[in-house]
Design goal:
Blueprint: H1 4-9, H2 14-34, H3 38-51, E1 56-62, E2 68-71, E3 77-79, E4 95-97, H4 102-109, E5 114-117, H5 125-131, E6 134-141, E7 149-156, H6 163-199, E8 206-210, E9 216-220, H7 224-227, H8 236-239, H9 242-258, E10 261-268, E11 275-285, E12 292-300, H10 302-320, E13 324-329, E14 334-337, H11 340-345, H12 369-380, E15 386-393, E16 401-410, E17 419-426, H13 428-442, H14 452-469, E18 472-480, H15 483-490, H16 492-508, E19 515-520, E20 523-531, H17 537-548, E21 552-554, E22 557-559, E23 563-570, H18 577-593, E24 599-601, H19 602-605, H20 613-628, E25 632-640, E26 646-657, E27 661-663, H21 665-675, H22 678-698, E28 705-708, H23 711-714, H24 719-729, E29 737-742, H25 743-748, H26 750-763, E30 766-772, H27 779-784, E31 789-792, H28 794-797, H29 803-818, E32 822-826, H30 831-839, E33 844-846, H31 859-863
Parallel strand pairs: 23-24, 26-28, 28-29, 29-30, 30-31, 31-32, 32-33
Antiparallel strand pairs: 1-2, 1-3, 1-7, 2-4, 5-6, 6-7, 8-9, 8-12, 10-11, 11-12, 13-14, 13-17, 15-16, 16-17, 18-20, 18-23, 19-20, 21-22, 25-26, 25-33, 26-27
Domain GGDEF: 471-604
Protein name: EAL domain-containing protein
GO molecular function: catalytic activity
């Protein structure tokens, strides 16, 4: 016999293996035809187990009504002879629950074979100790297309399953499923015959026979009310409730005269709630055949009527909702709708029926037809059970409505055609809010031009396109000359008007595919993608300069601003987005140094000493260090003064270069912000901190770590979701991180920032407001922000020796305590400062007096040396 192991080392033996399993299929078929009892099943399982070199073979079936699977019978399991002495120790395999093995249950319910090493199932640890390094394979029993149970096979891991084995084992198990279903069906037939015999005469229905005068001749019922009733020759009114007897009395002459039948609904108001009956009346000849009597079959349908009333109430409740409930065919034809559909359509409710029979796409904007058709196609072909989508709904009098549709495919019963049920709700307001949020995130609020984030995306896209199509990309920094003079002389409002006017004029002379973005302050950036040659670049630059010279009238005064432009070209001058930004920025510096109101190209000044090559080189080295993650993270402790214990750490980026040595953060942090690398730098720090936190938690170090988040990071789409995912991937909690943002960042756009901060807070992250006191926070703004910690800026800590400095810190501390915030004073350099802070109510400090920022390896020594201070 060819073993499964042999097939792995000798592919030519596949035919032999195929023959072995065909013999298995034949043997099992013979056994099942002969006997499907428990003993027969035992022989089948033994045949399967021995043929495929398994150590255990077990047949499971559902235990209705629970979701548990158990053995069909006590002997429906087989183990190899070597395991018989320990058979009782394998009782853990006797009962299995689907919810304990979701990774296996899902494929089984989908009709698929499920496989996994036994070592991955902690619930079967005791079986693993007996069976050793084995693999578990589950083959579903699907006699009628639904999961009936499964066959479980355990085999040593060194004998991997071959496709031939699995295919034929599936065929064997299919025969087994058919035999079980056949046996089960036979048992059901026998049980149903017994039930039918037991139910004859035991129905809850009442059958009454009466004559033309309304006298009761016969009554059949097992209801206790009629068991002891001597109904012979009693009138209908004496036997049945008035709500039934009176209608029967009225119909007697007509039915007996015409020898017909009738079905009616009767109500007995003598009980509460009223009882409802379906009554079927039939005229039948009496025993002599001379006249006809009336036979009434009376059935209590009160529960059905009450259920119908409840459903009617539910339907009426649905009509009160703003969401429209639709019933569609698989192709999208409208069959039924709740009254909210009329409100969405802007038509009277009584017109709803006029819409039936038409496709839903009839009322959908033409540009959204393809998406709707794709969703319906996925549902009709079984690719998805449910789906969600948004589309625009046509409205007779209002602008387009945005609706969110949730569609579900289902069949009322297996042989019925597929139906699609959906819920539609008006999300126009939410859609407009999302658009506004997107506008706020990617566009400058003053000029409505793209901001740095959107410019960065378009720049990378333009460079990618240029690489594929062998073309060029030009990028220019534009600076408004002497803008400070305009602000100082005419005011900031006038300065804003000048910036808006300049933005509109510059954009007007650009191509549709070009991008004009606001970099910040009085700086703009122009991006010119897909340039086939540079012959027009000088002309475009001059048009930009000339259009800026047109006069702008502000408060009756005309000003004629000028601009300086610095241009660089990809790939001639730089081979990356960061390099292009850096060179264009330095070229602008040269343009301003050359007298302003002019255009300079990097290719014209590349050989001049005026360009600060060292700065360019530094930018390149730093970009390379970020890309290679050659940065370090040091940790500065935050200390609880009362206990002397370290309560948290702040993560600080450090850069050591082989040629430059240690580069100060005051140099490379602004460099990162200027070149757009601040997000990548933040990601490096975040990943390093999360890895370090995992190590610390394993060693029992529980202090959280604060990371600084720049504005560019906070405003990046999906930042909060990314943060949640990374924390979850490292099996940490959000509270393990303290998210520090500067006060200036928080004040840049309070409503917008509060939205992101609320997301962070609801996710469980701790939020700290850094450099507090350097901005212009009002108490109301601070109260609205979901902030947990205030960090007093070192510039205020350093001025505690002055009366003014002490009062400022005291005010900050009192305000923070009033809002229930934790206060941390930064920049504590000596004991005198520490004592003053403690006097003012500061409970947590951070500074060189206790410890400067140290590498992660020195954290243990810091934790072992608590702060000792005699405060008496």
């Amino acid at each position: 016999m060819t073993t499964p192991h042999a097939i792995q080392t000798d592919p030519d033996s596949a035919l032999s293996l195929y023959q072995v399993y065909l013999e298995l299929l034949d043997a099992v078929a013979s056994l099942l035809l002969a006997d499907a009892s428990a003993e027969g099943l035992q022989e089948v399982l033994a045949e399967i187990g021995q043929r495929c070199n398994a150590s255990v073979c077990v047949l499971y079936q559902h235990c209705s009504p629970s979701e548990e699977a158990e053995l069909v019978a006590a002997k429906a399991a087989w183990v190899t002879e070597s395991l018989l002495p320990r058979y009782n120790e394998l009782q853990v395999l006797r009962h299995l629950r689907y919810d304990s093995f979701p990774d296996l249950a899902d494929p089984l319910h989908a009709g698929m074979v499920a496989r996994t090493p036994l070592s991955t199932l902690p619930q079967l640890a005791s079986a693993y100790q007996i069976l050793g390094d084995s693999q578990l394979m589950l083959i579903p029993l699907l006699p009628r297309g639904e999961l009936y149970g499964f066959v479980a096979l355990v085999r040593p891991t060194q004998l991997p399953w071959h496709k031939i084995e699995i295919n034929i084992l599936c065929a064997v198990v299919n025969d087994l499923a058919l035999a079980l279903d056949r046996d089960h069906t036979a048992q059901d037939l026998a049980v149903n015959q017994q039930r039918l015999q037991a139910l004859v005469g035991a129905t809850e229905d009442i059958v009454v026979e009466c004559d033309l005068q309304g006298r009761v001749l016969n009554l059949w019922s097992d209801h206790p009310q009629y068991q002891k009733l001597d109904y012979r020759r009693l009138m209908l009114e004496a036997v049945l409730p008035a709500g039934i007897a009176n209608p029967l009395r009225d119909l007697l002459p007509h039915l007996l005269r015409h020898k017909g039948s009738r079905v009616l609904r009767c109500i007995d108001n003598g009980s509460y709630p009223p009882s409802h009956y379906n009554v079927r009346l039939q005229a039948v000849p009496d025993a002599g055949g001379l006249q006809h009597n009336l036979v009434a079959l009376i059935r209590d349908v009160t529960p059905l009527v009450q259920e119908e009333q409840r459903w009617q109430t539910m339907l009426q409740t649905l009509d009160l909702l703003d969401e429209a409930v639709l019933e569609l065919t698989a192709s999208g034809i409208l069959r039924h709708a709740s009254t909210a559909w009329a409100r969405l359509r802007g038509t009277p409710e009584e017109w709803i029926g006029d819409d039936y029979g038409y496709p839903l796409s009839r009322w959908v904007h033409p540009q959204d037809h393809a998406e709707l058709a794709r969703a319906l196609n996925q549902l009709s072909h079984g690719e998805r059970k449910q789906t969600e989508l948004r589309f625009r709904l046509l409205h007779p009098s209002e602008p387009l409505l945005w609706v969110e549709a949730r569609l579900l495919a289902q069949r009322p019963h297996p042989s019925a055609p597929l139906e699609v049920h959906g819920v539609l709700r008006d999300v126009t307001t939410a859609y407009q809010n999302e658009r506004r949020i997107m506008q706020m995130a990617l566009y400058d609020a003053l000029t409505e031009l793209p901001n740095r984030l959107l410019l960065d995306d378009r720049l990378h896209e333009a460079i990618h396109y240029a690489k594929r199509h062998k073309c060029k990309v030009a990028l220019g920094f534009i600076d408004l000359d002497h803008f400070k003079l305009i602000n100082d002389s005419l005011g900031h409002k006038a300065g804003d008007e000048v910036l808006v006017s300049l933005a509109q004029r510059l954009k007007a002379v650009l191509r549709e595919e070009d991008t004009l973005a606001r970099w910040g302050g009085d700086e703009f950036v122009v991006l010119l993608p897909a340039l086939t040659d540079l012959s027009t670049l000088a002309a475009i630059s001059e048009r930009l300069r000339e259009v800026a010279r047109q006069g702008v009238t502000v408060d009756g005064l005309e000003t004629k601003p000028s601009i300086s432009i610095g241009m660089a070209v990809f790939p001639d001058d730089a081979d990356s987005a960061q390099g292009l930004l850096s060179l264009a920025d330095h070229t602008l510096f040269h343009a301003k140094a050359s007298g302003r109101n002019n255009v300079q190209f990097y290719r014209d000044i590349a050989d001049r000493q005026a360009l600060d090559r060292n700065h360019v080189v530094l930018q390149g080295w730093f970009a390379d260090a970020v890309q290679k993650r050659d940065l370090q993270v040091f940790y500065q402790p935050v200390v609880d003064v009362a206990s002397g214990q370290i309560t948290s750490f702040e993560a600080l980026a450090r850069w050591y270069d082989d040629q430059l040595g240690w580069v100060s953060p005051s140099v490379f942090i602004p460099l990162a912000e200027k070149t757009g690398l601040i997000r990548e730098l933040g990601e490096v720090v975040l990943d390093t901190v999360l890895q370090r936190l995992v190590q610390w938690r394993q060693r029992g170090i529980l202090q959280p770590v604060a990371i600084n988040v720049a504005r560019a990071q906070l405003f990046t789409a999906g930042f909060v979701a990314m943060l949640q995912d990374k924390v979850a991937q490292h099996q940490l909690q959000p509270a393990d991180l303290i998210i520090e943002i500067t006060e200036s960042t928080a004040l840049a756009d309070v409503s917008r920032q509060t939205h992101f901060l609320n997301q962070l807070e609801s996710s469980g992250f701790i939020i700290a407001l850094d450099d507090f006191g350097t901005g212009y926070s009002s108490l109301s703004q601070l109260h609205e922000m979901p902030v947990n910690v205030l960090k007093i800026d070192p510039s205020f800590t350093a001025k505690l020796h002055t009366e003014r400095g002490r009062r400022i810190v005291q005010a900050v501390v009192q305000m923070g305590h009033a809002l229930g915030l934790r206060i941390i004073a930064e920049g504590v350099e000596d004991e005198a400062t520490l004592r003053q802070l403690v006097t003012l109510g500061v409970a947590h400090i951070q500074g060189h007096w206790f410890s400067e920022a140290v590498p992660a390896g020195l954290v243990d020594s810091l934790l072992s040396q608590p702060l000792r201070l005699d405060l008496v």
